[in-house]
Amino acid sequence: MTRIFNTSPEHEEAKKHDPDLNNLGHKKLWNYFLKLTETQEFQEEILKSREKFSLPKEGLDWETIKNHRQEQYIDTSSEAFRIATLYKLDAIMWEETLHFYIECGVLSEPEWGSSCLLTTVEDEVYEPYSKFVQDIRNEVYPIFLRISPYATQREIIDFVKMQSIYIKKSQKKYQDSHSQIGKSRTRKEGKISRNQFIFEHKDLPRKEIMHLVTDKFAETLDYGHIGKIISLESKKREKK
Question: pTM, whole model, 2 decimals?
């Protein structure tokens, strides 16, 4: 069963003060990834990866291996990079998240990563991985904004606003019409977890589901709302 890793209140509060996590671009990509995991196409790619490493179809049991990671570590980087590239994600940023998901079906939010990337000349030419890193970044972030060390925040914001038409034109040139990234929006992780929980218990009577949701999420939903969520979650899992 898929679980979202580390969604404690303390973790969620800490995220609010982390600029790498509390920005719209990061939230958008994380939501995009969560939605990917609900599609049959993505699950088939994960299954291929698990078969390659002789892993169970459902992945390894997280509770069993989490305290023995070094002894049981499986290097899934090749498959993590393949899947990240397939879905237009920065393979460097998403490698660990995809590793966890391939290995044991656990959703672990990356500690950084957004629709924009802040980097410097030193970052781009750092050896011995410069060519490797640049090839990945050029694919995911093909539009560059070079900033003078003397530019102020006001000047940077003004420049982006004034160049917005050109930026959009440049973005369109590199966009993949089949990618869902641009259509993804931010969404509360609590609702994703709640809806997933409801779908997993869809065969239970509505009244029982209502009580379970109230106990687990401190939220009371009527039978109609629960039925709608089950219907929507079922449609998401249908093969497109």
Answer: 0.67
